[in-house]
Every structure is written in structure tokens, then in C-alpha cells.
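Reopening this one. Same input as before:
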Amino acid sequence: SGASRRTRDTRPLQRKPHNILARYTQAMRRVVVTGMGPVTPIGIGAEAFHKAQLEGKSGIRRITRFDASQLPAQIAGEVDINVEAYIDKREMRRLDRFVQLALIAGQLALEDAGLELEREDRTRIGTLLGSGIGGMESFEAQAKVYVERGAHRISPFFIPMMIANMASGQLAMKYGLMGPSSTSVTACTTG
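Same output, byte for byte:
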């Protein structure tokens, strides 16, 4: 017969990306990694870290930062660094160790990049850091204070010292960076 039958189009629906996705994709094309500042158990700074990797160096050894004698695992990858060489002693008391290490890493990355921040538009420079969990040393210390001396003796710096996004925030404040400031927390895969 001469009558045509209309068939249903079974091709997948082609949708235009939402504006948010388009903006995100466009922004991602403009991200530039300009410097590296590894602070690791096998090396501090890009050159030392790279050299240790090539040599197959391991940063795993007996735990020294706390008494691990009663634990089944007594080894870890601890960062051995003189923090006072980078951060004022008074400021160190207000920062958890993970923030201290992040500030050192940020300083090393800026030095590696050769950025002269006074010549840059700081509203277009942001910070993005990763932390597996945040300030556990502060959490442990303040939990001990709570148990032994009561809630009224907990440091007013407890939350700012502990929360994971403080590393990115402190780095942004230290260098006057006014672009996006964010923190990725995805447990062990953060790094």
C-alpha cells in the first residue's frame, strides 16, 4: 500500500549541556599547575621527592610521633621536617600539623612556580588542597582535654585547627589569594 508508517526514533536523546556544566568545562580548560611542593616521607620539595622516587626510596619506618608500642602496626610514612624553619613558632601553636605541612607545601609550590604574586591578579588565583581527614592531632589532644579537664578547657582554636578546609583557607589568607578556595576530602584517595 502507499501509506507510510511512522516509526519511533530510538536514537539516544541528544541534550545540550546545562549552563553550569558548560561553565565548569570552560573553567577546567583554564586551570594551570605552575609549581609543585611535595612534603612527603621520602622528600621535601619537588627535586628531593623526584630523586627519592627514582631511587626507589621508601618513607615507611617505625612510628616516632607517638607511642605505638601497644598497636599491632608500628610503622608509618611520617614526614620528618623542621616546621619552625618555615612557620613562626607562635603561629604553629594555632595550626594543626596537617595545616602546617600544607602551608609548607604551598610555599614550596609557589617557589617552584617562580610566581611573583605582587604582579598577579590574586582574585584569579585560588587554592585547592586535599586532606584525607583533617586535623586528627588537634582532635585527639582536645578530646583528652575534655576527658581530663572538662569542656570549658577546650581550646577556642579547636574547630579551626581541625576542619579539613582550614589548610586551603590558611594558604589563601597567607598569600592573599582571593580566587576559589576548596578542599577535597576523599579519604586515602585524596592525595
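So the earlier flakiness isn't reproducible anymore. For the record, The longest helix spans residues 97-113.
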